[in-house]
Amino acid sequence: MRQDHLITATQLSRDDIEAVLDRAREVAADPEAYAGRHAGTMLALCFFEPSTRTRMSFDSAAQRLGIDTIDMGDVDSSSVSKGESLADTVRVIEGYADSIVLRHPSEGAATLAAEFVDVPVINAGDGAGQHPSQTLLDLHTIRENHGLDDLTVGIMGDLKYGRTVHSLATALTNFDARQHFISPESLRLPRSVRFDLHETGAQVREHDDLEAVLPELDVLYVTRIQKERFPDENEYHRVAGEYRIDADTLDAAPDDLTVMHPLPRVDEIAPDVDDTEHARYFEQAHNGIPVRMALLDTLLENAEADEGMEVDR
Amino acid sequence: MSDHELRVSKIRDGTVIDHVEGGQALNVLAILGIDGSEGLGVSVGMNVPSDRLGRKDLVKVEGRELSQSEVDVLSLIAPEATINIIREFEVVEKNRVTRPDRVVGVLSCPNRNCITNADEPVDTRFEVVADGVRCDYCSTVLRSDIADHIDV
Fold it and tell me: What top-level class would CATH report for the domain B3-96?
Protein backbone atom coordinates (compact mmCIF):
# COMPACT_ATOMS: atom_id res chain seq x y z
CA MET A 1 0.00 0.00 0.00
CA ARG A 2 1.73 3.15 -1.18
CA GLN A 3 -0.84 5.71 -0.02
CA ASP A 4 -0.40 8.91 1.94
CA HIS A 5 -4.04 9.06 3.08
CA LEU A 6 -6.99 6.71 3.39
CA ILE A 7 -10.03 8.61 2.15
CA THR A 8 -12.30 6.22 0.26
CA ALA A 9 -12.47 2.52 -0.52
CA THR A 10 -12.17 3.32 -4.21
CA GLN A 11 -8.47 4.01 -3.70
CA LEU A 12 -7.86 0.52 -2.29
CA SER A 13 -6.60 -2.16 -4.64
CA ARG A 14 -6.62 -5.84 -3.82
CA ASP A 15 -2.88 -5.62 -3.10
CA ASP A 16 -3.41 -2.64 -0.78
CA ILE A 17 -6.08 -4.47 1.16
CA GLU A 18 -4.12 -7.69 1.44
CA ALA A 19 -1.00 -5.84 2.55
CA VAL A 20 -2.83 -4.15 5.43
CA LEU A 21 -4.69 -7.33 6.38
CA ASP A 22 -1.47 -9.37 6.29
CA ARG A 23 0.09 -6.84 8.62
CA ALA A 24 -3.01 -6.91 10.84
CA ARG A 25 -2.60 -10.67 11.10
CA GLU A 26 1.00 -10.19 12.18
CA VAL A 27 -0.05 -7.57 14.72
CA ALA A 28 -2.74 -9.84 16.14
CA ALA A 29 -0.29 -12.75 16.36
CA ASP A 30 2.43 -10.78 18.09
CA PRO A 31 1.28 -7.35 19.34
CA GLU A 32 4.43 -6.92 21.42
CA ALA A 33 6.49 -6.77 18.24
CA TYR A 34 4.64 -3.56 17.33
CA ALA A 35 4.60 -1.98 20.77
CA GLY A 36 6.25 1.42 20.79
CA ARG A 37 7.01 1.22 17.08
CA HIS A 38 6.00 4.85 16.48
CA ALA A 39 6.93 6.30 19.85
CA GLY A 40 7.39 10.04 19.76
CA THR A 41 4.70 10.63 17.13
CA MET A 42 1.30 12.19 17.65
CA LEU A 43 -2.14 11.36 16.24
CA ALA A 44 -4.95 13.94 16.25
CA LEU A 45 -8.45 12.57 16.75
CA CYS A 46 -10.82 15.04 15.09
CA PHE A 47 -14.39 13.91 15.53
CA PHE A 48 -16.97 16.42 14.37
CA GLU A 49 -19.71 13.85 14.99
CA PRO A 50 -20.35 11.64 18.00
CA SER A 51 -18.39 8.38 18.03
CA THR A 52 -17.50 5.82 20.63
CA ARG A 53 -16.15 2.74 18.89
CA THR A 54 -14.18 4.35 16.09
CA ARG A 55 -12.66 7.04 18.30
CA MET A 56 -11.64 4.61 21.06
CA SER A 57 -10.47 2.02 18.57
CA PHE A 58 -8.11 4.49 16.88
CA ASP A 59 -6.98 5.81 20.25
CA SER A 60 -6.25 2.31 21.51
CA ALA A 61 -4.51 1.25 18.29
CA ALA A 62 -2.35 4.37 18.33
CA GLN A 63 -1.31 3.96 21.95
CA ARG A 64 -0.36 0.33 21.38
CA LEU A 65 2.03 1.56 18.68
CA GLY A 66 3.49 4.08 21.10
CA ILE A 67 1.70 6.99 19.38
CA ASP A 68 0.41 9.74 21.65
CA THR A 69 -3.04 11.06 20.84
CA ILE A 70 -4.64 14.46 21.11
CA ASP A 71 -8.38 14.83 20.86
CA MET A 72 -10.13 18.02 19.81
CA GLY A 73 -13.02 17.11 22.08
CA ASP A 74 -16.66 17.84 21.40
CA VAL A 75 -17.44 20.14 18.52
CA ASP A 76 -19.54 22.33 20.82
CA SER A 77 -16.51 23.18 22.94
CA SER A 78 -14.06 23.61 20.05
CA SER A 79 -13.28 26.55 17.77
CA VAL A 80 -15.47 24.92 15.15
CA SER A 81 -18.45 26.33 17.05
CA LYS A 82 -17.04 29.78 16.30
CA GLY A 83 -17.40 29.12 12.60
CA GLU A 84 -13.86 28.09 11.69
CA SER A 85 -13.63 26.27 8.36
CA LEU A 86 -12.53 22.65 8.23
CA ALA A 87 -9.65 23.69 5.99
CA ASP A 88 -8.33 26.04 8.68
CA THR A 89 -8.93 23.55 11.48
CA VAL A 90 -6.86 20.81 9.85
CA ARG A 91 -4.11 23.23 8.84
CA VAL A 92 -3.72 24.23 12.46
CA ILE A 93 -3.86 20.65 13.71
CA GLU A 94 -1.24 19.63 11.14
CA GLY A 95 1.22 21.59 13.24
CA TYR A 96 0.31 19.59 16.34
CA ALA A 97 0.24 16.05 15.00
CA ASP A 98 1.90 13.61 12.59
CA SER A 99 -1.39 12.15 11.39
CA ILE A 100 -5.09 13.00 11.57
CA VAL A 101 -8.14 10.81 11.98
CA LEU A 102 -11.19 12.73 10.83
CA ARG A 103 -14.88 12.11 11.26
CA HIS A 104 -17.16 14.75 9.85
CA PRO A 105 -20.88 15.04 9.06
CA SER A 106 -20.29 16.28 5.49
CA GLU A 107 -19.53 13.98 2.56
CA GLY A 108 -16.14 14.76 1.04
CA ALA A 109 -14.74 16.30 4.24
CA ALA A 110 -11.75 13.96 4.36
CA THR A 111 -10.97 14.58 0.69
CA LEU A 112 -10.92 18.29 1.39
CA ALA A 113 -8.82 17.90 4.54
CA ALA A 114 -6.22 15.85 2.68
CA GLU A 115 -5.84 18.66 0.15
CA PHE A 116 -4.82 21.11 2.87
CA VAL A 117 -2.30 19.09 4.90
CA ASP A 118 0.81 17.02 4.29
CA VAL A 119 0.35 14.59 7.18
CA PRO A 120 -1.65 11.39 6.59
CA VAL A 121 -5.43 11.79 6.90
CA ILE A 122 -7.64 8.83 7.66
CA ASN A 123 -11.33 9.17 6.91
CA ALA A 124 -13.17 7.81 9.94
CA GLY A 125 -16.56 8.48 8.35
CA ASP A 126 -17.79 11.42 6.28
CA GLY A 127 -21.54 11.86 6.53
CA ALA A 128 -23.28 9.25 4.42
CA GLY A 129 -20.14 8.88 2.30
CA GLN A 130 -17.38 6.47 3.18
CA HIS A 131 -15.79 4.73 6.17
CA PRO A 132 -12.80 2.87 4.72
CA SER A 133 -10.99 1.89 7.93
CA GLN A 134 -14.19 0.13 9.03
CA THR A 135 -14.11 -1.69 5.71
CA LEU A 136 -10.60 -2.94 6.33
CA LEU A 137 -11.63 -4.45 9.65
CA ASP A 138 -14.78 -5.86 8.03
CA LEU A 139 -12.66 -7.50 5.35
CA HIS A 140 -10.26 -8.81 7.97
CA THR A 141 -13.19 -10.43 9.78
CA ILE A 142 -14.50 -11.94 6.55
CA ARG A 143 -11.06 -13.19 5.57
CA GLU A 144 -10.44 -14.82 8.92
CA ASN A 145 -13.79 -16.65 8.69
CA HIS A 146 -14.18 -17.41 4.98
CA GLY A 147 -11.36 -16.00 2.90
CA LEU A 148 -12.06 -13.27 0.38
CA ASP A 149 -12.75 -15.16 -2.81
CA ASP A 150 -15.66 -17.26 -4.04
CA LEU A 151 -17.73 -15.39 -1.54
CA THR A 152 -21.45 -14.56 -1.38
CA VAL A 153 -22.20 -11.52 0.76
CA GLY A 154 -25.61 -10.13 1.70
CA ILE A 155 -25.69 -6.53 2.87
CA MET A 156 -28.95 -5.56 4.52
CA GLY A 157 -30.53 -2.45 6.00
CA ASP A 158 -29.79 1.18 5.28
CA LEU A 159 -27.84 0.99 2.05
CA LYS A 160 -28.56 4.58 1.05
CA TYR A 161 -27.07 6.43 4.00
CA GLY A 162 -24.84 3.67 5.40
CA ARG A 163 -21.26 4.76 4.81
CA THR A 164 -19.86 1.41 5.98
CA VAL A 165 -21.93 -0.25 3.26
CA HIS A 166 -20.67 2.10 0.58
CA SER A 167 -17.04 1.41 1.42
CA LEU A 168 -17.52 -2.33 1.83
CA ALA A 169 -19.45 -2.78 -1.42
CA THR A 170 -16.76 -0.90 -3.31
CA ALA A 171 -13.88 -2.76 -1.69
CA LEU A 172 -15.47 -6.16 -2.35
CA THR A 173 -15.24 -5.49 -6.08
CA ASN A 174 -11.55 -6.33 -5.75
CA PHE A 175 -12.45 -9.92 -4.97
CA ASP A 176 -14.48 -12.75 -6.44
CA ALA A 177 -17.55 -11.78 -4.45
CA ARG A 178 -21.24 -11.92 -5.35
CA GLN A 179 -23.07 -9.11 -3.58
CA HIS A 180 -26.76 -9.14 -2.63
CA PHE A 181 -28.25 -5.89 -1.40
CA ILE A 182 -31.35 -6.24 0.75
CA SER A 183 -33.29 -3.11 1.67
CA PRO A 184 -36.56 -1.27 1.29
CA GLU A 185 -36.91 0.59 -1.99
CA SER A 186 -36.34 3.95 -0.27
CA LEU A 187 -32.97 2.88 1.16
CA ARG A 188 -31.32 1.32 -1.86
CA LEU A 189 -27.74 2.09 -2.83
CA PRO A 190 -27.07 5.65 -3.96
CA ARG A 191 -26.19 6.43 -7.55
CA SER A 192 -22.53 7.07 -6.71
CA VAL A 193 -21.97 3.56 -5.31
CA ARG A 194 -23.91 1.97 -8.16
CA PHE A 195 -21.58 3.84 -10.48
CA ASP A 196 -18.50 2.28 -8.87
CA LEU A 197 -20.04 -1.19 -8.90
CA HIS A 198 -21.08 -0.87 -12.52
CA GLU A 199 -17.64 0.40 -13.54
CA THR A 200 -15.97 -2.68 -12.09
CA GLY A 201 -18.52 -5.11 -13.50
CA ALA A 202 -19.39 -6.34 -10.01
CA GLN A 203 -21.84 -9.20 -9.56
CA VAL A 204 -24.71 -7.45 -7.83
CA ARG A 205 -28.39 -8.20 -7.14
CA GLU A 206 -30.98 -6.24 -5.17
CA HIS A 207 -33.78 -7.68 -3.05
CA ASP A 208 -36.68 -6.45 -0.97
CA ASP A 209 -36.37 -9.22 1.59
CA LEU A 210 -33.77 -11.55 2.99
CA GLU A 211 -35.67 -14.81 2.72
CA ALA A 212 -34.91 -15.72 -0.88
CA VAL A 213 -31.19 -15.12 -0.69
CA LEU A 214 -30.32 -16.16 2.88
CA PRO A 215 -29.53 -19.84 2.09
CA GLU A 216 -26.84 -18.76 -0.43
CA LEU A 217 -24.91 -16.43 1.87
CA ASP A 218 -21.48 -16.81 3.43
CA VAL A 219 -21.78 -13.44 5.12
CA LEU A 220 -24.79 -11.38 6.20
CA TYR A 221 -23.77 -7.79 6.94
CA VAL A 222 -26.58 -6.05 8.82
CA THR A 223 -26.74 -2.28 9.29
CA ARG A 224 -28.83 0.00 11.42
CA ILE A 225 -31.61 2.04 9.87
CA GLN A 226 -30.16 5.42 10.84
CA LYS A 227 -32.82 7.79 12.06
CA GLU A 228 -30.42 10.74 11.99
CA ARG A 229 -29.81 10.30 8.27
CA PHE A 230 -33.45 10.66 7.29
CA PRO A 231 -34.54 14.08 6.12
CA ASP A 232 -38.13 12.94 6.73
CA GLU A 233 -38.93 11.30 10.06
CA ASN A 234 -42.15 9.79 8.68
CA GLU A 235 -40.07 7.89 6.15
CA TYR A 236 -37.89 6.56 8.98
CA HIS A 237 -40.88 5.27 10.90
CA ARG A 238 -42.21 3.54 7.78
CA VAL A 239 -39.14 1.30 7.48
CA ALA A 240 -37.90 1.08 11.10
CA GLY A 241 -38.40 -2.38 12.53
CA GLU A 242 -38.26 -4.10 9.15
CA TYR A 243 -35.14 -6.02 8.17
CA ARG A 244 -34.67 -7.31 11.68
CA ILE A 245 -33.17 -10.76 12.24
CA ASP A 246 -33.38 -13.15 15.17
CA ALA A 247 -32.20 -16.70 15.85
CA ASP A 248 -35.29 -18.15 14.15
CA THR A 249 -34.59 -16.16 11.00
CA LEU A 250 -31.20 -17.82 10.80
CA ASP A 251 -32.65 -21.35 10.80
CA ALA A 252 -32.69 -21.06 7.01
CA ALA A 253 -29.07 -19.95 6.84
CA PRO A 254 -26.03 -22.11 6.04
CA ASP A 255 -24.33 -23.43 9.17
CA ASP A 256 -21.22 -21.38 8.55
CA LEU A 257 -23.01 -18.08 7.85
CA THR A 258 -21.17 -15.17 9.46
CA VAL A 259 -23.40 -12.37 10.73
CA MET A 260 -21.68 -9.00 10.93
CA HIS A 261 -22.71 -5.49 11.97
CA PRO A 262 -20.61 -2.31 12.22
CA LEU A 263 -22.35 -1.48 15.52
CA PRO A 264 -24.03 0.12 17.32
CA ARG A 265 -27.09 -2.03 16.77
CA VAL A 266 -30.50 -0.97 17.99
CA ASP A 267 -32.99 -3.74 17.32
CA GLU A 268 -32.02 -5.02 13.88
CA ILE A 269 -30.22 -8.03 15.41
CA ALA A 270 -32.11 -9.64 18.28
CA PRO A 271 -30.03 -10.55 21.35
CA ASP A 272 -30.72 -14.26 20.81
CA VAL A 273 -28.50 -14.16 17.72
CA ASP A 274 -25.54 -13.38 20.03
CA ASP A 275 -25.62 -16.94 21.33
CA THR A 276 -25.50 -18.55 17.90
CA GLU A 277 -22.38 -19.62 16.02
CA HIS A 278 -23.24 -17.01 13.40
CA ALA A 279 -22.59 -13.92 15.50
CA ARG A 280 -19.27 -12.26 14.69
CA TYR A 281 -20.01 -8.57 15.32
CA PHE A 282 -18.14 -8.30 18.60
CA GLU A 283 -15.17 -10.13 17.11
CA GLN A 284 -15.50 -7.71 14.19
CA ALA A 285 -15.36 -4.69 16.54
CA HIS A 286 -12.33 -6.13 18.33
CA ASN A 287 -10.59 -6.58 14.99
CA GLY A 288 -10.54 -2.78 14.80
CA ILE A 289 -7.42 -2.76 16.98
CA PRO A 290 -5.00 -4.89 14.93
CA VAL A 291 -6.37 -3.54 11.65
CA ARG A 292 -6.09 0.10 12.70
CA MET A 293 -2.65 -0.58 14.14
CA ALA A 294 -1.65 -2.05 10.78
CA LEU A 295 -3.18 0.91 8.94
CA LEU A 296 -1.50 3.56 11.12
CA ASP A 297 1.78 1.68 10.90
CA THR A 298 1.54 1.55 7.10
CA LEU A 299 0.60 5.20 6.59
CA LEU A 300 3.22 6.51 9.03
CA GLU A 301 5.82 4.30 7.40
CA ASN A 302 4.87 5.79 4.02
CA ALA A 303 5.03 9.33 5.43
CA GLU A 304 8.46 8.68 6.96
CA ALA A 305 9.67 7.26 3.65
CA ASP A 306 8.50 10.44 1.89
CA GLU A 307 10.47 12.57 4.32
CA GLY A 308 13.56 10.53 3.64
CA MET A 309 13.30 10.73 -0.15
CA GLU A 310 16.06 12.53 -1.98
CA VAL A 311 14.89 15.15 -4.42
CA ASP A 312 16.53 15.39 -7.85
CA ARG A 313 17.89 18.84 -8.48
CA MET B 1 -33.78 26.06 -44.25
CA SER B 2 -30.10 25.12 -43.94
CA ASP B 3 -27.74 25.78 -41.03
CA HIS B 4 -26.31 28.69 -42.95
CA GLU B 5 -29.48 30.73 -43.07
CA LEU B 6 -29.81 32.62 -39.83
CA ARG B 7 -32.94 34.28 -38.59
CA VAL B 8 -31.00 37.04 -36.87
CA SER B 9 -28.52 39.56 -38.20
CA LYS B 10 -24.77 39.08 -38.16
CA ILE B 11 -22.77 40.35 -35.21
CA ARG B 12 -19.70 42.52 -35.46
CA ASP B 13 -17.60 41.10 -32.59
CA GLY B 14 -18.40 38.31 -30.20
CA THR B 15 -19.33 34.63 -30.18
CA VAL B 16 -21.86 32.50 -31.98
CA ILE B 17 -22.63 29.23 -30.31
CA ASP B 18 -24.19 26.99 -32.90
CA HIS B 19 -25.53 23.44 -32.97
CA VAL B 20 -26.80 23.54 -29.43
CA GLU B 21 -29.30 20.79 -28.69
CA GLY B 22 -32.85 22.10 -28.98
CA GLY B 23 -34.11 23.51 -25.69
CA GLN B 24 -30.67 24.18 -24.16
CA ALA B 25 -30.19 27.79 -25.28
CA LEU B 26 -31.32 29.30 -22.00
CA ASN B 27 -28.96 26.99 -20.13
CA VAL B 28 -26.16 28.19 -22.38
CA LEU B 29 -26.99 31.74 -21.33
CA ALA B 30 -26.99 30.61 -17.69
CA ILE B 31 -23.50 29.11 -18.12
CA LEU B 32 -22.32 32.37 -19.59
CA GLY B 33 -23.91 34.25 -16.70
CA ILE B 34 -25.95 36.33 -19.10
CA ASP B 35 -29.32 37.52 -17.87
CA GLY B 36 -29.61 40.76 -19.82
CA SER B 37 -28.46 43.05 -17.04
CA GLU B 38 -24.90 43.25 -18.35
CA GLY B 39 -25.99 45.12 -21.47
CA LEU B 40 -24.60 42.65 -24.02
CA GLY B 41 -26.51 42.22 -27.25
CA VAL B 42 -27.83 38.68 -27.28
CA SER B 43 -29.79 36.84 -29.93
CA VAL B 44 -31.29 33.42 -29.29
CA GLY B 45 -32.71 31.03 -31.83
CA MET B 46 -34.60 28.06 -30.48
CA ASN B 47 -35.65 24.93 -32.30
CA VAL B 48 -34.26 26.17 -35.57
CA PRO B 49 -34.26 23.48 -38.28
CA SER B 50 -30.82 21.91 -38.64
CA ASP B 51 -29.37 19.55 -41.21
CA ARG B 52 -27.20 17.87 -38.59
CA LEU B 53 -29.36 17.87 -35.47
CA GLY B 54 -32.90 18.07 -36.84
CA ARG B 55 -33.61 20.97 -34.50
CA LYS B 56 -31.05 23.12 -32.81
CA ASP B 57 -30.66 26.21 -30.69
CA LEU B 58 -28.33 29.06 -31.52
CA VAL B 59 -26.92 31.81 -29.32
CA LYS B 60 -25.16 34.97 -30.50
CA VAL B 61 -23.42 37.15 -27.97
CA GLU B 62 -22.18 40.59 -29.02
CA GLY B 63 -18.91 41.82 -27.56
CA ARG B 64 -17.84 38.74 -25.66
CA GLU B 65 -15.55 35.80 -26.39
CA LEU B 66 -15.91 32.64 -24.33
CA SER B 67 -13.35 31.46 -21.81
CA GLN B 68 -12.10 27.87 -21.90
CA SER B 69 -13.94 26.99 -18.67
CA GLU B 70 -17.19 28.21 -20.19
CA VAL B 71 -16.58 26.14 -23.28
CA ASP B 72 -15.79 23.13 -21.07
CA VAL B 73 -19.14 23.32 -19.36
CA LEU B 74 -20.96 24.01 -22.59
CA SER B 75 -19.62 20.69 -23.81
CA LEU B 76 -21.53 18.91 -21.08
CA ILE B 77 -24.95 20.21 -22.11
CA ALA B 78 -24.22 20.80 -25.79
CA PRO B 79 -21.69 18.20 -26.93
CA GLU B 80 -22.32 18.97 -30.61
CA ALA B 81 -21.89 22.72 -30.25
CA THR B 82 -19.60 24.78 -32.44
CA ILE B 83 -18.07 27.96 -31.10
CA ASN B 84 -17.53 30.70 -33.66
CA ILE B 85 -15.48 33.72 -32.66
CA ILE B 86 -16.45 36.76 -34.69
CA ARG B 87 -14.32 39.82 -35.29
CA GLU B 88 -15.35 42.58 -37.70
CA PHE B 89 -18.23 40.40 -38.96
CA GLU B 90 -15.86 37.60 -39.93
CA VAL B 91 -15.54 34.15 -38.37
CA VAL B 92 -11.92 34.14 -37.19
CA GLU B 93 -12.12 30.90 -35.21
CA LYS B 94 -14.47 27.96 -35.44
CA ASN B 95 -14.13 25.20 -32.87
CA ARG B 96 -16.07 22.15 -31.78
CA VAL B 97 -16.37 21.76 -28.06
CA THR B 98 -14.46 18.88 -26.49
CA ARG B 99 -15.26 17.20 -23.23
CA PRO B 100 -12.69 18.02 -20.54
CA ASP B 101 -11.50 15.49 -17.94
CA ARG B 102 -12.72 17.77 -15.15
CA VAL B 103 -14.75 20.93 -14.70
CA VAL B 104 -13.66 23.17 -11.87
CA GLY B 105 -15.66 25.90 -10.19
CA VAL B 106 -18.55 25.95 -12.60
CA LEU B 107 -21.11 23.51 -11.19
CA SER B 108 -22.53 23.43 -7.69
CA CYS B 109 -22.88 20.03 -6.08
CA PRO B 110 -26.54 19.07 -5.71
CA ASN B 111 -25.74 17.15 -2.53
CA ARG B 112 -26.50 19.74 0.13
CA ASN B 113 -24.39 17.72 2.56
CA CYS B 114 -21.30 17.85 0.34
CA ILE B 115 -18.40 19.68 1.96
CA THR B 116 -18.26 22.02 -1.05
CA ASN B 117 -21.57 23.50 0.09
CA ALA B 118 -20.16 24.39 3.51
CA ASP B 119 -18.32 27.67 2.87
CA GLU B 120 -14.93 25.99 2.63
CA PRO B 121 -12.18 27.68 0.58
CA VAL B 122 -12.36 25.26 -2.35
CA ASP B 123 -13.82 25.27 -5.85
CA THR B 124 -16.21 22.54 -6.79
CA ARG B 125 -14.54 19.92 -8.96
CA PHE B 126 -16.29 17.33 -11.08
CA GLU B 127 -14.81 14.47 -13.04
CA VAL B 128 -16.40 14.11 -16.47
CA VAL B 129 -17.62 10.52 -16.81
CA ALA B 130 -19.28 8.64 -19.65
CA ASP B 131 -22.74 10.13 -19.33
CA GLY B 132 -22.39 12.91 -16.82
CA VAL B 133 -20.14 14.32 -14.14
CA ARG B 134 -19.11 13.15 -10.68
CA CYS B 135 -18.20 15.30 -7.67
CA ASP B 136 -14.56 14.78 -6.67
CA TYR B 137 -15.48 15.35 -3.03
CA CYS B 138 -18.70 13.45 -2.30
CA SER B 139 -18.90 11.29 -5.48
CA THR B 140 -22.42 12.46 -6.32
CA VAL B 141 -23.18 11.68 -9.96
CA LEU B 142 -25.02 14.21 -12.13
CA ARG B 143 -26.43 13.13 -15.46
CA SER B 144 -29.32 14.74 -17.33
CA ASP B 145 -29.75 17.41 -14.67
CA ILE B 146 -26.32 19.03 -15.12
CA ALA B 147 -27.77 22.30 -16.40
CA ASP B 148 -29.71 22.77 -13.15
CA HIS B 149 -26.46 23.07 -11.23
CA ILE B 150 -24.50 25.55 -13.27
CA ASP B 151 -22.88 28.03 -10.94
CA VAL B 152 -20.89 30.55 -13.00
Answer: alpha beta
